[in-house]
Amino acid sequence: MASVILERLYSVLTRFSWRDIIDIAVVTFIAYKLIVIIRGSRAEQLIKGVVFILLASLVSRALGFNTINWLITQLMTVALVAIPVVFQPELRRGLEQLGRGRFFARSGYIYGDSKDFETMQKEVLKAVNVFVKKRIGMLLVMERQTGLKEYIETGIAINGKVSAELLINIFIPHSPLHDGAVILQGSQVVAAGCYLPLTENPNLSKELGTRHRAALGLTEHSDAVAIIVSEETGVVSMAVGGKLTRYLDEKTLKQMLLELFEPETNPFQQFWQWRSS
């Protein structure tokens, strides 16, 4: 028996080529990326359920339970139709992450100039400090690779350069636009008073209000970054990828913005700066 196994193993290894290595590596990489995408989402529970059903189908077939096996087969047929409908947000999120690859990147809304990024960061931090001190609620959304046109169209067009004064005037209580979200594209305030989808996560704390739920809802469906200032407590929070980080101070918020938005350094630009110095 052992000799037969060794012979088969040797036969497989002798036919193994560099193409097979690349093939296995690509499949492994794709599987890893899929795990990263679905981790922490509802799709993770879906995968566990599918695995359980497949195991149940194999066991029922092996034991000769024909009725149970027939029911499981019918259930899987229905699931093939229901899954794309029920888990549409997760499927959309996965396709968007695929489209945000380097070859599909939309450079128009990325900070290609460090000065534009520094201006945006400075003005946003200045406005946030005012909102915290005066307990003014704020919801600021910053677009990244995923376009937010459908949400921008729900608000009022602004199309002005970002400044602390502009943001403060928008979110001052009782102003016409203070209830909605402000959306930034690069260093431009493109719209205010925008409506965002609310998260359906049932495990959120009851103390989180509509602004926090809207920020989470949007970041669950896109790669946008949302900054929230609580009107009741003045606590600063950031939502990214459907996850909320709370109790941020100015230093931490500044560092997070730097990590999320800092422009990539152009090596040719560095070369010419060195030549001119």
Report on the architecture of this protein.
The protein is of the alpha+beta class and 277 residues long. The protein has 2 domains: 2-103, no CATH class; 107-261, YojJ-like (1. The chain has 11 helices and 7 strands. A 7-stranded mixed β-sheet has the order 2-4-3-1-5-6-7, with helices on both faces. Helix 6 packs parallel to helix 8 (164-171). The relative contact order is 0.09. The model is unreliable at 102-109 and 266-277 (pLDDT under 50).
Task: Characterize this entry briefly.
This protein folds into two domains: 2-103, no CATH class; 107-261, DNA integrity scanning protein, DisA, N-terminal domain (YojJ-like (1), CATH 3.40.1700. 56% of the residues lie in helices and 13% in strands. It contains eleven helices and seven strands.
Q: Treating each run of at least 4 consecutive H or I residues as one helix, how many helices?
A: 11
Q: What is the CATH class name of the largest domain?
A: Alpha Beta
Helicity range: 55-70%
- Second CATH tier, the architecture of the largest domain: 3-Layer(aba) Sandwich
Number of DSSP strand runs: 7
Poorly predicted spans? 102-109, 266-277
Kindly report how far apart the N and C termini lie: 75 Å
Secondary-structure element order, as H and E? HHHHHHEHEHEEHEEEHH
The backbone outline, from C-alpha atoms, is elongated
CATH topology-level name of the largest domain: YojJ-like (1
Rg is: 25 Å
**How large a portion of the residues is in β-strands, by DSSP E?**
5-15%
Assembly level? single chain
- Content-based structural category: alpha+beta
Average pLDDT works out at 81
Name the CATH superfamily assignment of the largest domain. Answer: DNA integrity scanning protein, DisA, N-terminal domain
Largest sheet: 7 strands, mixed
Query: What is the count of distinct domains?
Result: 2
Strand arrangement in the largest pleated sheet:
2-4-3-1-5-6-7
